[in-house]
Design a protein that fits this description.
The protein has 301 residues and is α/β, with parallel strands linked by helices. The chain has helices at residues 51-59, 86-94, 98-122, 127-139, 148-158, 173-195, 214-219, 224-233, 242-249, 265-282, and strands at residues 4-8, 13-17, 20-25, 28-33, 37-42, 48-49, 63-67, 73-77, 255-258, 261-264, 292-297. It has two domains: 4-77, Ribosomal Protein L15, Chain: K, domain 2; 86-297, Four Helix Bundle (Hemerythrin (Met), subunit A). The chain is built from ten helices and eleven strands. A four-stranded mixed beta sheet has the order 1-5-7-8, with helices on one face. Helix 6 packs across helix 10 (265-282). The radius of gyration is 20 Å and the shape is globular.
Length: 301
């Protein structure tokens, strides 16, 4: 299984060399086997990339992320064909049972709230606030008519930031860090969704007409507390430094619990998406495997 996350900055050219990614800077060059690479993150907008390399990255289901001038992920490259039975998978996805969609969304919301509770406990938040989230977790129903997810998010973020904190406030460095971390996880999910032969834009709950990754937006909810916990433990400075961005990218190598074992986020995403597909095939909720933040291990660079 691929595992390397390659970060490209201050280089001249990326090209293919046999079955390797070749990175050149002046007279220096580094080669990395394609079969070891999970994703490539390009922050150097002057870097030249050969078309032949792009084709091989696609063939190997390697996620390519290109960042903008603010260093935030701007573009994702995904293969047109990601699975040997893609047509069959797409037909199945289009006809997924509506009740199963609603059940899955309920499970995702409950796992998100549970993982938020785990973060609050790790950071020693007041027990009254934790109890409120436990109540919302128990009250979560199909279609979430009581808006338990939104209520939990408000209590959760206000436990760490002052009242009036808004996720849409683009001037706050905390939001920039959260958005960067979420974008990395979202892209990794999208890559795996495409590799399974599914359409990333066809969600079970998110239906944004301008969102090309609605299904990723559904699945990421259970992973968001992983990013939150890192940023709350290691707050960013006044801006996102290169080292801080690298540590956010490296969250793909953090470890979480899933299916009773500690796994990297890359592997947890693979397990979760596979179980997601299996659930819609069988309707058996016991096959579902979701990330659990009770035990988290980060590996900083």
């Amino acid at each position: 299984m691929s595992w390397r996350v390659v970060h490209i900055t201050d280089v001249d050219k990326m090209a293919l060399s046999l079955d390797n990614l070749k990175v050149k800077k002046g007279d220096k060059e580094v080669k990395i086997p394609l079969n070891e690479i999970f994703s490539v993150v390009i922050e150097d907008l002057t870097c030249k990339v050969t078309g032949r390399l792009l084709v091989e990255l696609s063939k190997n289901n390697i996620l390519l992320l290109v960042c903008n001038q603010q260093h935030l992920p701007e573009m994702t490259m995904l293969p047109i064909q990601g699975h040997c039975t893609q047509y069959k998978r797409i037909k199945e996805q289009i006809s997924w049972d509506e009740e199963r969609k609603q059940f899955m969304w309920k499970r995702i919301i409950k796992q998100k709230i549970y993982n938020q509770i785990m973060v609050m406990q790790k950071l020693h938040v007041d027990q009254d606030r934790i109890n409120k989230l436990n109540d919302l977790l128990a009250e979560t129903e199909l279609f979430d008519p009581s808006t338990c997810e939104a209520q939990a998010a408000r209590i959760y973020f206000n436990s760490f930031f002052e009242d009036g904190f808004r996720r849409r406030d683009t001037d706050r460095v905390e939001n920039a860090a959260l958005n960067y971390g979420y974008a990395i996880i979202n892209a990794a999910l999208t890559r795996t969704i495409a590799a399974k032969g599914l359409i990333p834009s066809l969600g079970i709950h998110h239906i944004g007409e301008r969102n090309a990754f609605n299904l990723s937006s559904d699945m990421i909810e259970a992973f968001r507390p992983l990013v939150d916990y890192y940023i709350l433990k290691e707050p960013p400075e006044d801006y996102l430094t290169k080292t801080y961005r690298l540590n956010l990218i490296n969250l793909l190598h953090a470890e979480v619990s899933i299916d009773g074992r500690q796994q990297t986020v890359i592997r947890a995403i693979e397990i979760f998406v596979s179980s997601f597909v299996d659930f819609f095939k069988t309707g058996d909720e016991s096959v579902l495997k979701m990330p659990n933040m009770k035990k988290i291990a980060y590996h900083e660079l």
